[in-house]
Amino acid sequence: MNKIVSISIIGILLLGGICVGGVNTIKTMTDNNPPEMPDISGPSFITEEDEYIYGFEAIDSDGDSVYYFVDWGDGTYSNWIGPYYSGTEAAAHHAYAIKGAYTIHVKAKDNYGADSEWATYYPKWRNEINQQINLPFINLITSHHISIKESNK
Question: Which domains are seen in the chain, by residue range?
Answer without folding.
Answer: 33-144 (2.60.40.10)
